[in-house]
Amino acid sequence: MSREAVHAAFASLKADFRDERFPVIAGRLAGESLAWGERLLKLFATAGRDALEAVDMLTRFWVVRYRGMPEPADLGGAGAGAAFVLAFTAFPYLDVMMDAWELGEVAGEHGPDRLTLHCLFDGEDQGTLVTALRAQGGWRFDLMGLYRDKAKALENFIELEFGAFDAFLDHYVAEHDLSFHTEQAWRPLAGQ
C-alpha cells in the first residue's frame, strides 16, 4: 500500500476544497462522515430548538443558517456526502483549517485498502485521525475527525467572542445583512 498515494489523494482533496468543487468532495467521502451526513439531513428536516442545542455549534449553525433564509434550503435531493460538505463548510472563516491539515504517519493498517493516519495541524499532531479507504481506483476519506476539530474551533470562538450561540447568530445575521427568519430557523421543516 502506498502511503505516498494516500498523501497525494489528500492533497488533491484539499485542492478540491480550495476550488469549491463540493460535488467532487462529496463523492470522495467515506465512513463516519457519510453516516454523519445522513444524520445532518435528518436534523435539518426535523430538529427543533432542543435537539439543535444538543449538537455541536457547527451543525447548529448550518441548520439554522439555511433554514432561516426567506426560503429554507431545499435539501430534498441531497445525499449524505453533500450534507456533510455543506455543514463542514458552513462557516467560511474556518475553511483555512483545511489548508493547515496534512496527513502524517500511519496509525494503523486495516487490510490492503484501508489506512488510518495521524493528521497534523500546522505540522503538529493534536490527536486527530483520518481514515483513507481505497475505492474505485482512488482514495476516499473519513473526515469526521476534522469535522469535530472544526466544530470545537467554532465553539471556542463563539464562547470567547460572544458568550452564547444566540448572540453569535444575531451578530452574524446583522454583519452579513441577511434576510433571516429566526423563528423559522429553529422550527423543524416537517409540518410547515
The largest beta-sheet arranges its strands as: 1-2-3-4
Mean pLDDT: 93
SSE arrangement, N to C: HHHHHHHEEEEHHH
Ends: how far apart? 51 Å
Number of domains: 1
Helical residue percent band: 40-55%
Poorly predicted segments: none
Strand content: 15-25%
Q: What's the number of helices? A: 10
Find the structural class using helix and strand composition.
alpha+beta
Write down the overall geometry.
globular
For the biggest sheet, the summary is: 4 strands, antiparallel
- For the secondary structure, the number of strands is 4
User: What Rg do the Cα atoms give?
Assistant: 17 Å
Task: Describe the structure in brief.
The protein is of the alpha+beta class and 192 residues long.
Give the topology, please:
Blueprint: H1 3-18, H2 22-26, H3 32-46, H4 49-53, H5 57-67, H6 80-88, H7 96-100, E1 101-109, E2 114-121, E3 124-135, E4 138-142, H8 144-161, H9 165-175, H10 182-186
Helix pairs in contact: 3-6
Commentary on this structure:
The protein has 192 residues and is of the alpha+beta class. It has one domain (3-101, 121-126, 144-186). It has helices at residues 3-18, 22-26, 32-46, 49-53, 57-67, 80-88, 96-100, 144-161, 165-175, 182-186; strands spanning 101-109, 114-121, 124-135, 138-142. It has a 4-stranded antiparallel beta sheet with strand order 1-2-3-4. A hairpin with a 4-residue loop joins strand 1 and strand 2. The longest helix has 18 residues, at 144-161.
